[in-house]
Known about the structure:
- By secondary structure, the chain is mainly beta.
- The chain has helices spanning about 195-200, 295-305, and strands at about 1-5, 15, 40, 50-55, 70-75, 90-95, 100-105, 120-125, 140, 145-150, 155-160, 170-175, 180-185, 190, 205, 210, 220-225, 235, 240-245, 250, 255-260, 265, 275, 280-290, 310-315, 330-340, 345-355.
- Strands 1, 11, 16, 19, 20, 21, 24, 25, 26 and 27 form a ten-stranded antiparallel sheet that branches.
- Strand 26 (about 330-340) and strand 27 (about 345-355) form a beta hairpin.
- The mean pLDDT is about 95.
Amino acid sequence: MNVITPIKITDTILVSSTVPETVAATYSGATTYGLGDLAGLAPVYGSAQIVYRSRQAGNVGHAQSDPLWWEVAGTVYPVYASGSSCPLLGTVTDLANHDLYISLVAANTGNPLSDTTKWRLTGKTNRWAMFDRLRNTETSVPKSMTFVIAPGVRTDALALMGLSNVDTVTVTATSSGVPVYSHVENLDTREVLDWFTYFFEPFSTRKNVLLLDIPPITNIIITITLSTVYSGQSIGIGACVSGSAEFIGHVQYDAESDEMNFSTITREFDGSVSQLTPRASVPKNAHTLIVKKQYVNRIRALRKALGGVAAVYAGMDDSTDDYFDAILIYGVHKRFSINLAHPTNAIINLEVEEL
């Protein structure tokens, strides 16, 4: 079991991203666009703007519906402006904190975002959704995305979790401009269990990637690219966690993968169901670990540091193993007891809940 305590991604650490966050310039058929230039329809305050990226240099006079010249880069919302009027259920961006707010009233003008009677926080912008602590809020764009992080501290681990429709993950790293790391992983998979699934089971992609061999260099620059080979298909990532991995023991065969279901059921006097209210299920894991006694003091210090802190708990190193996803979780520990009964080995009972 390796535990990755995430570094906090800030504006300084996120060097660049191809996922747009701000409103793009209004498209004009008379403007010549270069390769990678962004443009969209004229923005309307409170409404989404679809941002297009130029696929070629010398792009002039081509409609944004032309796939040879343009591709969808993502969707953004206007930045909050106190003097502008936002309609009911309109959305604005708090660019300073990378948050999205929805208007709770019509003609919402002059009300600060802190006024909870006028605005409701709905989460992070699309660019930053992968860096919050929730794996079910994803950064999603068509076809591909590339982002670059500069941790600023020594980091040797990277977890990419909650991937959807991603065929290929490419991770490269440089130090002072010199390449120091490269990893390419194909995520295409197909769960063939019998002859029927051999012939009829659709192709799918793995959901998580874990890298534990990144060089621990202070000034490292890490570039991550996620892509799909299917034109027009959106890809997503629920969580990107960079940090240092700490070994806390070997997972034993009795590991458990479970979920807490928060749906409610209302029953009549005879036991029949009168109402079922579906709600989210929250994954949780339970493990028994064995570790040599010389690790105990380091693990105790780590346990204290992780009190109330979300971290990645990876029970296996091999992301291609069928058990890998079941015992990989991004959450907080609810139980972390260390049994010292054995003279040379300690037994750890660990329970982790996802956020």
